Amino acid sequence: MTPFSPNGSGSPPENLFDGMLMKGRSVVVEAIGLLKARWKILQSLNVGVNHAPQTIVACCVLHNLCQIAREPEPEIWKDPDEAGTPARVLESERQFYYYGESLRQALAEDLHQRLSSR
User: Fold this and answer.
1) Residue among 49, 20, 25, 35 nearest 112 (CA)
2) Residue 74 and residue 59: Cα distance in Å, rounded?
3) N or C: which end of the chain has fewer CB within 10 A?
4) In a 10 Å sphere around its CB, with 0-12 CB exposed, 13-18 middle and 19+ buried, how is residue 108 labelled?
């Protein structure tokens, strides 16, 4: 998902949504980085499309076993191309882009309403 504005210049619902989105994103990025550090095959994933899901699941299961066995965690892998730049939207994807924008707005307003009523 794309944040509304990177500098917090949006409405209160949009800023709340952006903050929650960034928290969630950082957790996901850290988890993926940890998996890539432990399992080097995930850094480039040179397997066929049919085998990619099984490879990823196998690495996740093995990672969980390492966690249970209290194996030390490797240093987190950082993707060199993670510059934080938004992905380009192709013309054929434009309708999904607009749908995503309206869905994001609805999620932000719902989140703000739920947390404001506490």
Assistant:
1) 20
2) 14
3) C
4) buried
The residue whose two tokens read 């989140």 is: 111
What is the CB neighbour count within 10 angstroms for residue 11? Answer: 14
Burial of 36 (0-12, 13-18, 19+ CB in 10 A): buried
Measured in residues, the chain has a length of 118
Please, what is the average pLDDT of the chain? 84
Give residue 7's pLDDT band: very low, low, confident or very high (50, 70, 90): confident
Instruction: Report pLDDT digits (tens) over 32-90.
Output: 999 999 999 998 888 989 999 999 999 999 999 999 999 988 877 666 655 555 555 55
Q: For residue 43, which amino acid is it? A: Q
Residue 23's pLDDT is 92
pTM recorded for the entire structure: 0.62
SS3 107: helix
CB contact at 8 A, 56 and 100: no
